[in-house]
Every structure is written in C-alpha cells, then in structure tokens.
Design goal:
The complex is a heterodimer of chains A (329) and B (488). Chain A has 329 residues and is of the alpha/beta class. Chain A has 13 helices and ten strands. Chain A is 29% helix and 14% strand. Chain A starts with 7 loop residues before the first strand and ends with a helix. In chain B, the strands form five sheets. Chain B has a five-stranded antiparallel beta sheet with strand order 3-2-1-15-16, covered by helices on one side. Chain B has a four-stranded mixed beta sheet with strand order 8-7-6-11. A three-stranded antiparallel beta sheet of chain B has the order 12-13-14. Chains A and B meet through α1, α6, β6, α9 and α12 of A and β2, β3, α1, α6 and β9 of B.
Chain lengths: 329, 488
C-alpha cells in the first residue's frame, strides 16, 4: 500500500508497438476507475517516472503490473526482472509479452541477416557497407547502442508470470472487465482466478463467437483473400480462405471475420493447445476434401507461406520458438 | 572532454538517446541523437504473402497503424496492378481523415500544448495536459476525449478494429458502410470541424496573442533552412492519402514532384555506425552532412513541410488559415520548426473538412468497394502522408505474390537528420561554459525535437506531455560531476 492507502499499479512496454497502451487509453472514462482505486507508480505512456524509482521500491510493493512487449534486448530483460521482483501480480499483457507477436517472425532469420537486409535496401546508399556498431568511437568519445539478442522471447521465457492476457492488442471491453474484477477483489467481493490463468479472454475459440454460418463443408482449394469475393454470411474458411478462428482463443467477439477479414490469430492458442501452429494446421487439414496425398499437396500449395500463416503471432511462444538460423544468431 | 547523456529520452522501437560532448573548457563540442533498437521489419516481412504486409506493418506502430495500413494497401494495389473502385478509395481516405483528427489532437493538447499554453519554463507540475485543461477550461478535456473517441469510432467502422485495422486488401476493402453508419460519421465529422476551429482559436488567443511566444517561434534557435517534401493532389493542394510528393528547396522553389514508383530517384538513405536508424536525404542534391542550405540534401517531412511543399489547402476553411499562416509568418517557405505546431492545427481543420466532404459523397455507401485483381503480382510502391511525415512502403514479389523484397521509409525517419541538427543547435545555443544547466534549459532542448512529434515510440504521446530526462555530466575520467533531472 502507498501513503494514500491505495494499492500500486504499473504498466510497462518492452519491445512493442504501443498499441497495447492505446487499447488501455481506449477504455475512456474507465481509466478514471484505475485512478480512483490505484496509485499509478510507473507507466511511461501516461506519467513520468524513471527506472531508478522502481529500483528504489520494496520488493513486492506494486500490487499489479501489466507488462506488454517482447524481450528483444538486454534492457527489456532487465526491466522484466526488475518489475517481477517489485510486483505481487505480473500480467503478460498483449500478444508480444504472451507469445512474441509478429515481430517474433524475426526469429526465422539471424541478426546478421536482419542487419544485412536493413542496411542494404534499394534506397540505402551504403558504399562502405557500414553496419551500426554497439561501440563506436567518434572524434569526441565513444558511443554505445545495445546489442540485440539473437531471438525474440516471451515474458515467461524470462521471468515467472502470474496471469496471461492475450490480444493484439487486448480488446478494450476485456481490459475494462479485468480492471473491474481487480477492483472487486480489492473490495473483498471477488476472488482472483488461479495463478497461471488466462484472463480477459474466453475459454473457447473465435469460431464459437463468430456469427458466420458453418455447415462443415469440405474444400478442394485454398485461395487468397484478394481473389475471393467474401460472402458476408458464410464461414470464411469454408469459402477457401485460411482463417485462424479454429485454433484461436475467443474473447475478441470475432471482430475481424465480422469485418469480412479472416481471423489472424491475435488472441493466441485456444485453451489446451500445446502448439498454436500445430493446432491450426490440424484444424485446417480437417476441412480438406481429399485422401489422396498428391491432391492434398496440391491443395496446400494454396498456402504458400505456412510459417507466416500458422505462426503469425506465436512463433516465440511455439515449441520450436525460432528457426535454426534464428537460434544460431 | 565531458559527456552529457540524455537517456532515455523516450522510445523509437525502444529508446532515443542523446549524447552531448563538451570540450575541456566546458563549451559544447558535438551531440549525437541515437536510436538504439531495430526490429527488422524489412527482413521478416520477406517471404510473406504480400496481402499480409499491410497487417504486419501495422505493428511497427500502435499509435499510427492506420498510416502503415494505408501505405501498405496502396503498395499491394500497385503490386497487383489493380485500381480500387472510387468508393474504396474514398472509404480509406475517410478512415484516414478521422485518424488524422485524433492523432493531431492528441499531439497538440497532450504534448505540444503545454509548452505554449503553460509556457516553456513554467513549473513542471503545471506543464502538462492537466495544466492545459485548468488554464483553457475544464470542458476542453471532455472535448479532447470526445475527439479521440469519434476518430477511433470511424476507424473501427471502416477498418474493422480500433487498433490495427484489417480491412484493406489488394483492390479495395473487405467491407463498406451502411447508410446509418454514414449518418453517424457525418454527425461526428461536423462536430470535428467545430472542434478544429475552436482549437485554432485557442492557439490564436493564447500563442499568437503573446509576443513572447511569437518571438520564440520566430527565433533563430529553432530555425533551419532545409528542403521540404509533402504529398499534393493534382492541383498541388495538400493531400494525405493520394497524389505525388512535391519537393521544394529552402527558397520555396519546387524542384519537382515524384510519383510513388519514382521515390528511389529522389530519396536515398545514409547509414551511420553509431545508430540503428538511417538518415534519408534528397538524392539529387546529395549528402553534405548535417547542415542547412540549398546544397545540403537534408529535408524535412512534417505538417509544416506539407504546407511549404504545396500551393494551398483543398478545403475552404483550412485554406483561409493557410493564408493567414504565411501572411503572419512572413511568406513562404516558413523555416521555423516551432511553426510545425500551428501547421498541424491547420491540417486538423483540413482533415475534419475532408472527413465531411467524403462522407457526404453519394457514392460513399455504394457496394462497389472491391476490384478483384486479374494481373500477376510484381512490384509496387505505396505512399501516404503519415502525421509525422511521408510514409513509403515498397514491396516486390514473386509470381505467387510472395514478398522477395520490402523497403520502408517511415514518417519520423525522414526527419532524423533534421532532428539531429535541431537538438544540436538548441544544445549549442543553450549550453555554454560557465552557465549552469537548468531544468528549463533541458525543456528548451526537448522542444527542439518535440515539434517534429517524433514517433520515437509512443512516449511522445505521453499524457503529461513531458518526457523524463536525466542528464549526467561526467568529467574526462568518467566521474559523475553533475546530475540534472526533469520529471524523474
């Protein structure tokens, strides 16, 4: 508890895009409930405080920390460890912290490959083939920039996590519901869910909350969305366009399929899925209308980038986590 | 040699960092604005199905995913050589106009506003959005929240989601809007015009009515004579979604206009070994270092640049403000960086007017919002004006539409050289031997780059409008001799 008797709240971004912060701000007037019930002690987007202020806090003195972003460099790792130490409840907030999100597709390449690409693009004039250096001496002295880790890691690959809140970003109505729950717990009117639970999401799949009609139709061909005039009523997968709904946790109200766009899987693996991509592949295989290996192979040519399609959000959180070149840095 | 490190100032895919070196006499020697992180989008967007890239690149920035989604959408249209129906283009631009209103509003009230409304050397405790609300009036806080809400509502109606829109695909959109939605969007747009006018009036009363602030804007410390770029329509009026990029020199003379697929003739990027971010410059002029002038390829791409590079605004109320802007500041082009804030508000008004113009077009509710591509995918470039500068997405694919090359020149990146120069000049002018370094001085350095609204991540959108700064001054042996803090 702080001097004013309110429990302490923190929110932090590691390697992330800032969309999680925007999602929190999008709860609009609910943000006043956070203010009324918590003392916000560390939240770079909303207030100013420095790392050393956090370092000075007693261990476990922050009641609730929402941590978004993946672990890309040593600074991300340092803050993850620090906030773990200072927080009673640490929540992996959003896809990056939970499973790596899209930036973890970088785990398919080595750092060298990433640097070589970025510093030799078509518009780059780099005749001396310069690469940024962690330590570089300029006439006035030495300059330093951090070294990237070989692969992107999820928060729980670095520190123990108490709860997982998925989504890219988590939907605002789910954020508001979680804040309500925590306030109820503080007032003695509710219990926290068991440690390790997924919060702010459903227990089934996106398909279960999707309004589109399914009639378990089998398909002979996968196509890309640009080639298909998507019917507004029928299941997108049954129209032959890959949709991640069957493997993805519910909780978003199936907003992308409602907008005529396939589920891309941002709410992460459905309950019980050991590996997101494996679950999605098996779901997709079950709608393929063929038993002939050659024909099946032909049908799957309609999905030319399986790594990107099946592990779009989940590569860092998957069983393999990275490709060989990623692991080798 | 002494070193002053400002770390972290805030984030760009991590944090920004400024190192200032002083000579043995204690005078300013040099400064370096470093970007310490790289996520590698240009690599991991390769090998992907190209229609995914406008969704992948949303994750570059959760504050302005709309800009990446739109530049990406135009790039994939070009990859498939498909021209989306008029309704699709209007819906995309409508989404984009509403987004601009939200984004420019947030910047002005939360970030830039405090410096002007409260004053650059006002106490830190007051120099934030709450201070602004107290000074301008409580109801303005409600209006700012309302503007953000309306903008996001339109983004969700057309883009499918409030953050990271998903509906733009090669050839158009996956959905249109209903007549009921149309009416709702129109009502919100008309309110947005009033809000923009109110905001310009507040700027007029508080900033332009105060000689001290006008002198600050016009002063040399925040001035650089560089080239400017910005997208214009066929009448050379500012446009955020479509057109050609106009390039003007420091005298305001138009050097030319380039179409998206001509960008490599005009723009090149320089690599420095001490930072992960590249420095774009005008290829035809050439890189001459971090210097001003006609012979230096350094350019700026901001709201002010767009106004400087165009002949006017396409909507009547914004055009009147445009004329007033240049008559007040002494003609075109305007080089004073702090005038970016004023230019941003003129764009806010234009975006709101454009919002209403588009939503009242009879074809906006048409079902004709998609064209199925028929040609083989090859290569394409999409350019839009992100709020923080010209945004270029360039994708090359194989015949299956799998990306083989991706090149991105992101809004803020355009301004990296200019920001490096602005912070250097501010520090050079303020940090002098024998003059104690004060908190107000630090804020004056910060103002030099805050004008650009640099998207060094989203902390630049932090609610108090102030970034935590700590300057540690070390002597030659590395001993800490002085610590200066702001908001720490």
């Amino acid at each position: 508890m702080s001097a004013n008797g309110k429990p302490k709240f923190a929110m932090y971004w590691a390697a992330s895009c800032g969309g999680c912060e925007i999602a929190v701000l999008n709860i609009h007037e609910k943000i006043l409930d956070v203010d009324a019930n918590f003392e916000v002690v560390f939240w770079p987007v909303a207030m100013d405080a420095k790392y050393k202020d956090v370092e000075a806090m007693e261990d476990g003195s922050i009641l609730l920390t929402l941590f978004n972003g993946a672990i890309r460099n040593d600074e991300n790792e340092h803050i993850a460890k620090l906030l773990r130490q200072k927080s009673k409840i640490l929540v992996a907030f959003g896809s990056c912290a939970n499973e790596g999100c899209m930036p973890a597709l970088a785990n398919l390449s080595s750092i060298k490959d990433i640097m070589d690409t970025a510093f030799t693009t078509i518009s780059t004039e780099n005749p001396s083939n310069i690469r940024p250096q962690p330590y570089f001496t300029v006439p006035e002295g030495e300059l330093h920039i951090p070294t990237l880790f070989p692969i992107v890691r999820t928060l729980d690959q670095v520190v123990p996590v108490d709860y997982y809140m998925p989504g890219c970003p988590p939907e605002s109505h789910q954020i508001a519901a979680v804040i309500d729950l925590v306030i109820q717990v503080l007032q003695g009117n509710a219990q926290l869910p068991p440690a390790g639970s997924v919060i702010g999401a459903g227990g089934s799949t996106v398909c279960d909350e999707c309004a589109r009609k399914r009639d378990v139709k089998k398909i002979k061909k996968f196509d890309r969305i640009q080639n298909v005039m998507i019917d507004a009523e029928i299941c997108i997968l049954e129209q032959g366009v890959l949709c991640s709904g069957p493997a993805t946790r519910s909780g978003c109200k199936a907003i992308c399929p409602a907008a005529g766009s396939p589920c891309i899987g941002c709410y992460g693996p459905a309950e019980g899925a050991l590996d997101y991509g494996a679950r999605l592949m098996s779901a997709v295989a079950s709608v393929v209308d063929s038993n002939d290996p050659a024909e099946i192979e032909k049908i799957f040519e309609g999905i030319p980038d399986p790594a990107g399609q099946f592990y779009r959000f989940n590569l860092a959180g998957s069983l393999m986590r990275a490709s060989k070149s990623g692991w080798n840095g | 040699m002494q070193r002053i490190s400002i770390d972290p100032i805030t984030r760009l895919e991590g944090h920004g960092k400024i190192d200032i070196f002083l000579d043995d006499e204690g005078n300013f020697a040099n400064s370096y604005f470093q970007i310490p992180e790289l996520r590698g989008f240009e690599r991991f967007c390769v090998g992907r199905q190209v229609e995914e890239v406008p969704i992948l690149t949303n994750r570059i920035c959760g504050v302005c995913p709309e800009a990446h989604h739109m530049a990406g959408a135009k790039a994939v249209d070009a990859v498939y050589h498909v021209d989306p129906p008029r309704t699709a283009k209007m819906l995309r631009e409508l989404l984009y106009s509403a987004f601009y209103c939200t984004d420019h509003t947030t910047h002005f009230y939360a970030l830039a506003g405090p410096d002007f409304i409260m004053g650059p050397t006002a106490p830190v405790a007051e120099r934030n959005i709450l201070g602004v609300i107290h000074k301008v009036g409580l109801e303005i806080g409600g209006k700012v929240i309302q503007m953000r809400k309306y903008g996001h509502t339109v983004v969700e109606m057309i883009g499918g989601r409030k953050v990271h829109p998903c509906t733009s695909i090669p050839g158009g959109l996956t959905k249109g809007i209903t007549k009921e939605q149309r009416d709702e969007i129109e009502t919100m747009g008309r309110w947005a015009i009033e809000f923009a006018q109110f905001t310009l009036q507040a700027f007029n009363d508080i900033v332009l009515g105060n000689k001290e602030y006008v002198d600050l804007i016009l002063g040399d410390i925040y001035t650089h004579h560089t080239h400017y770029i910005g997208m214009v329509d066929e009448n050379n009026k500012v446009n955020f979604y479509d057109g050609k990029v106009s390039v003007v020199d420091p005298d305001g003379k138009r050097l030319g206009k380039y179409a998206p697929n001509e960008y490599t003739d005009w723009i090149a990027e320089r690599v420095e070994p001490w930072t992960y971010l590249k420095f774009p410059y005008l290829k035809k002029v050439g890189w001459k270092g971090f210097v001003d002038g006609k012979d230096s390829g350094v350019y700026m791409a901001t709201p002010l640049s767009r106004l400087n590079a165009a002949d006017g605004m396409a909507t009547p109320l914004a055009q009147a403000e445009y004329e007033k802007f240049y008559s007040t500041l002494g003609g075109k082009p305007v080089h004073q960086r702090l005038a970016i804030h004023w230019a941003r508000l003129i764009e806010l008004l234009y975006a709101a007017e454009r919002w209403v113009e588009l939503v009242t077009d009879p074809e906006i509710t048409s079902d004709n919002f998609r064209t199925i591509p028929t040609e083989k995918p090859t290569e394409g470039v999409g350019i839009v004006e992100a709020p923080r500068g010209t945004l270029t997405h360039h994708y090359t694919t194989d015949e299956r539409g799998i990306t083989t090359k991706v090149n991105l020149i992101v809004g803020t990146t355009n301004n990296y050289a200019s920001i490096q120069m602005s912070t250097k000049k501010a520090a050079q002018n303020l940090i002098k031997k024998g003059t104690p370094i004060t908190e107000g001085m630090l804020n004056m350095v910060e103002m030099a780059f805050r004008a650009y609204d640099p998207c060094f991540g989203c902390a630049t959108h932090s609610l108090p409008g102030q970034m935590p700064l700590e300057i540690n001054i070390h002597d030659v042996q590395g001993n800490l001799v002085q610590v200066l803090k702001q908001n720490c």
